[in-house]
Design a protein that fits this description.
57 residues, 0% strand, 3 helices, single chain, 51% helix, mainly alpha
């Protein structure tokens, strides 16, 4: 069962994937260590959620 929010999110995600947006590209070559370092979650946390610095890695 889908609702309007589900359809909207699905459509937006598919549009991003078709545009080859960075976070829609699969990285199947990553192991556990490199996955934690990619895409620099601490760098993103500093910008958006400083309280999470160090927690994400």
């Amino acid at each position: 069962m889908t609702d309007d929010v589900h359809r909207y999110n699905k459509d937006r995600w598919e549009a991003l994937a078709e545009a080859n947006a960075l976070f829609t590209r699969p990285r199947l070559d990553l192991d556990a260590v490199t996955a934690r370092a990619y895409p620099g979650l601490d760098r993103l946390a500093i910008t958006y959620r400083p309280d999470l610095v160090g927690v994400l890695t």
